[in-house]
Amino acid sequence: MAKxxxxxxxxxxxxxxxxxxxxxxxxxxxxxxxLLGAMKSSGCAVYKDRHFSCEDCDGTVSGGxxxxxxxxxxxxxxxHQQSHMNRVVTHELxxxxxxxxxxxxxxxxxKHLACSEIRAANLSGDCSFHNEVSRFNFGLKxxxxxxxxxxxxxxxxxxxxxxxxxxxxxxDEVFDTCFNDHxxxxxxxxxxxxxxxxxxxxxxxxxxxxxx
Length: 212
Ligand SMILES: [Zn+2]
Description:
- By secondary structure, this protein is mainly α.
- Helix content is 60%, strand content 6%.
- It contains ten helices and three strands.
- The chain has helices spanning 2-20, 29-41, 48-51, 82-102, 110-123, 129-134, 143-159, 164-179, 192-203, 205-210; strands at residues 52-55, 63-66, 71-75.
- Helix 7 packs across helix 8 (164-179).
- Mean pLDDT is 79; it is low at 1-7 and 208-212.
- The site of zinc ion has 5 residues, from helix 4 and helix 5.
- This is Mitochondrial inner membrane protease ATP23.
């Protein structure tokens, strides 16, 4: 346990340093860059000092999106590695993107919440190959979908007081539609290479249409 704490302190300092230097986004790679770009072009600019907050969080929560303030919370006490932070930032940015483009009713429409959690689990790398191997869950073809479904359920149950059956029902209702909605990536980015391709396509989107 002590070891984890040490590591956590180092990483926390690193996050805070990056944050204070205004480099939170640039340090986190193509997924986040693409999401930030997509939000900007949808009219939702993200400001590093206003929209990212480093806090200590309860339990094992690693991050959150606060819809009322449009703020992404990074749980500095529960994030121990740069790669984990990248996933958390990407996951929460997907919620922020959905909030921006779709006027999500987080509190009254259960389907909206379920859909965004499915998308965040699917597109953030939460269920990517390396991640799953490291959890000793390496498995079959359908495994990615199972992982996404499981993580979406877990996220919903962490923020809403509903029964597991109720959460499962809603997740299953919207699963196919939301699992296949890859905006703004255009694909499921399984690794950094995919994310770089997606970012390149996104950067070239205007040029492409201008040439038609
Ligand atoms: Zn989430």
